[in-house]
Amino acid sequence: WYNDDDSTTKPVIIFLAGFTGFSYMYNQFVDRLTDRFSIYVVEAYQQIIGPDRDATTDELMDLYTERIQSVIDHHTIAAISGVCYGGEHALYLAHRLYHDKAYKPVVVCLDGEVDRDITPEKNPVTRFPFFSEELNKHRTEQDDILLRTLPDFHYEGKVVSFVSSEFVDCYSYLDPNPSEYKIDCMKQFLASAPARWKNRYPDCEVIMFPTNHDLFWRTEPSLTMITDCFNRIGDELG
C-alpha cells in the first residue's frame, strides 16, 4: 500500500511499476490521486522475479496475481495501470483476471505499446551505467523473454491508452550509439502508435500526451491529464 492499508474503503488503483521502480516514475502523479483513491503498488518486475531466475510473461502474471489477489477480493478496484511495460503488463493481467473470474477492471496504459515489433535490430539496448555488466546482461535477457512470451490476446474490458506525441531518443544514455536505422524504426513505431491502439481496441480511448516518453510523467499538462482521467473513472464508479 502506498498511502493507506488493507482497511481502506476508498476505490483502489493498482499500479504495476513495470520496468522502472515505482518511486522513480510514479510519485509525481500518484500523490494527486490519494485523496480519492487508495494506491496499491506492485514493484518493478525485476524485483518481483528476482536476480537468480528468469520468468515468462505468464509466470510473471502468476507472481502478480499472488500479490493482488486479496486486494481484488476485498476492495473496489477503480483501475489497473502502469507506465510503458507496466501498462502493457496491466493489460495482460486484466485479460487473465477476466478469463479467470469474469472480472473486467478498467486498464489505463500510460505510454505503453500494443502489437510491439520485437525485432532486436529495431529496439534500443538498455544497459544502465550504474549496474554491473552481469546484472545488465541478466536484465536484458529477462526483458527479451517477457517480450517473446507475451501471448496474442484481446482484452474485453475498458481500455484507456495515453500516447506521447513527440519522439525523443530517451535511450541515448542507455544505447549511446544507436544506428540511424534503429532511430528511424523507433520514430516510425511511435508515429503508428495511435493507429495500432485503435486497430487492436476500436473502443479504446486514446489520449495524446503533448510531450515525449521521457518527460510526460513530470510535466504539468500531462500530470493534469492523468489526474483527470482517473477522476473520471472514479466518477463512473459513483
Detailed description of the structure:
By secondary structure, the chain is α/β, with parallel strands linked by helices. It has nine helices and six strands. The chain has helices spanning 22-25, 27-30, 45-49, 57-74, 85-101, 133-149, 180-191, 193-200, 220-237; strands at 12-16, 38-42, 77-83, 106-110, 159-164, 205-209. A six-stranded parallel β-sheet has the order 2-1-3-4-5-6, with helices on both faces. Helix 4 crosses helix 5 (85-101). The mean pLDDT is 89.
Class inferred from helices and paired strands: alpha/beta
- Rough shape? globular
Fraction in beta strands: 5-15%
Helical fraction: 40-55%
Number of strands: 6
Distance between the first and last residues' Cα: 23 Å
Summarize the structure.
The protein has 238 residues and is α/β, with parallel strands linked by helices. The chain has helices spanning 22-25, 27-30, 45-49, 57-74, 85-101, 133-149, 180-191, 193-200, 220-237, and strands spanning 12-16, 38-42, 77-83, 106-110, 159-164, 205-209.
